[in-house]
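In practice, a research group might receive sequence data for several interacting partners and want a quick structural hypothesis before committing to experiments. The following worked case mirrors that situation: the sequences arrive first, and a predicted assembly follows.
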Amino acid sequence: MVVENQLEKKEGKLKKFFQTKIKPAWEKVDKDKLSTVLLLAPYVILFSLFIVIPVLVAMGLSLTYFNVIEMPVFAKMGGFYNYIMILTQDEIFLRYVLPNTLKYAIITGPGGYALSFLMAWMLSQIQATPRKFLALALYTPSMLGGVLTGVIFRTLFSGDKSGYINAVLLNLGLVNTPIDFLQSGDYLMSIMIFVTLWSSMGIGFLSMLAGILNVNREMYEAAYIDGIKNRLQEIFYITIPSMKPQMLFGAVMAIVGAFNAGGIGVALSGSNPTPQYAGQLIVNHIDDYGFIRYEMGYAAALSVLLLLLILLFSRVAYRLFEEKDR
Amino acid sequence: MASFLGTQINPKSFHKSQLKFYFILVPIGLFMLLPVIYVISQAFKPLSELFLFPPRFFVSNPTLDNFARLFRTASGTGVPMTRYFFNSIIITILTIVLTILITLATGYALSKKRFKAKKTLFSINQVALMFVATAVAIPRYLVVTTLGLTNSFAAHIIPYLAMPVGLFLVKQFIDQVPDELIEAAKIDGANDWHIVTKIIGPLVKPALATVAILSFQFIWNSTESSNIYVIDETKKTFAFYMNTLTAASAGPAGVGIAAAAGLVMFVPNLIIFIVMQGNVMDTMSHSGIK
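A structural hypothesis for the assembly, expressed as C-alpha cells:
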C-alpha cells in the first residue's frame, strides 16, 4: 500500500512537473526557428567538421613541429619556422615545386578556362541536337576521374614500344628508340598539362554554355543597331557582360579543378616524388612531407600556402567578373 | 527583322554559316573521345592483340576475356574483386541519398527561411567553393581519427557529405521558386517538412539530379578514403582496387584487365550523365555567382 501510494505520488509529481515546466517551455519555443536550426544542422555540422576545422587545424599545425608520435611543439621563430624554412631553405620547393605549380596552374587554370569558354561559345552557335552530342563528347573526359585518366594515359604514353604513342612515332620514323615519356623529366610536365587541359571541360564549361544560351536575343539585336560590327565585338560587349555570374562560377571551378588535378603527375609516373621532380606540385610536396616523412607541421604550412595561392587566383577572377552594382 | 544578320545563338535551323563551327567542333569532339575509345578497345582485345607490335588502335577480334578475368581476380590479400565492387555500390548509393537530403534541407533554409546568419552562411559556403580537399588531407585525417571513424564504412561517406558546390547550385535553384507558393502552403497548415518534401523537392528536381551526378562522379572515382582512412581490405572501394591493379600489373595481360576495370568504372558515369543531361543544363542556367 505504502509503496503504491508513493508511486502514485511520484507519478503525480511527474505529471505536475510536465504540466507546469516542460509544456510551457515547449510552447514558448519558436517552432519556426527550431525547424530552421534542424534544417541547417546536418550541413553546418558536417561542413564545420570536414572543411572549416581542417583548415583551422592546418593553420594551427603550420606553426608547430609535429611528427605524429609526440605532441606538437610550438615552432621556433615565433611559430613561423616552417614558413621561413619553406621560403628560404627548401631547395626542392623553390627550385621545382613552386615554379612547377605556377607554370601548371597558370596554363591549366586560365588556359582551360579560355578553352571551355571558346568551346561553349562555338557550341552555342549550332543547333540544339548536334550541340547535345558534341557537349557530351567534350564533357566526357572530365567525368573519368583521376584514377581512370591515369590508366588511360599510362597505356597511351607507355615507355616501351607497345605504348601507342611510341609505336606511332617509331612507325613514322620520328624516333629510333621508344621515349620513356612518363619517367622523363623533359616530358612529364607537358603531358600533365595536356591531360589536364583535355579533362578541363567540366561543370564550369556546362555553366558557361547554359549562360551563353540564356543571353537575351534582343540584347544582340539592340547592339547591332547601336553599331556592333562582328562576332568578336559581340562576345566582348554583349555575351560576356551579360553572363558575368556564370563566367565567375566557371572561373572558380577552373581554378579549383586545376589545383585538384595536381595528383595527376604521381598517377602518371607512378611515384612520389615524380622523376627528377619534373611533375612535382605543391599537392605532391604536401603528401611527400605529410604521409611519407610524417613532418606534419611542415606539411600543414605547405597546405596553408596552397590555400592562399588558390585564394589569390580566385581574387583575380572576382576582380574581373564580380557584378559591381549591388 | 527578317534581314537581321547578327547573332545566331541557339539557332533553330541549319545555315551554312554554321559549318565553320562544325569544322572545328567535330574534330575536337572526336579528339577528346579518342583516349576513351582507345581504352574501350583495349578492354575487348584478346591477349594476342595486347601483345601485338605495332599496337593497333581498334580491336579486331573482340572478346570478353578481360572482363571474365577481372571478375575472377582478387587482391594480394585474397579479397575478391566483387567485394570491392559491392562496397563501392553501397557507399555510392548511401552518399548520394544523404547528400541530396542534407543539401535540399539546407538549400531550402538558406533560400526561404529568415534568420540572422543567413547571408554570412551563404558567403562562407561561396568561399568554400574554392576549397581543395587534398590540400588539407592531413588535418582531415586527424578529424576522422578523432571521431573514431577510421576503418569503418562511415569513413567513406561522412567526410564527403557536405558539398559546397551542390549546396550553392540547389540554393540558387530554390531562389527561383516563388515565395507565394510557400506562403500559400503555410496558410494551408503545412510545416517545413511538408514544404520541403511535397513542394520544394519536386520543383527543384533538376538541381537535385545535378547534385546526384556531381556526388556520384566524386565518390565513385575517389580513392582518398580507401587510401588513408580505411586499413581493412574488405572495406575498401573499387576505385582503390582498380588503382592497385594498374599499378601492380606491368605486363600486357594486366593492361587488358585494367582497361576492363576502367570501363566498368566509366559506363555508370556515362549512363547517368546522359540520362540527366537536360536536368544538368537546367541547373546550370542558375549557377552564376552574383
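Before designing any experiment, note the following. The first helix of chain A runs from residue 2 to 28. The beta strands of chain A are 64-65, 73-74.
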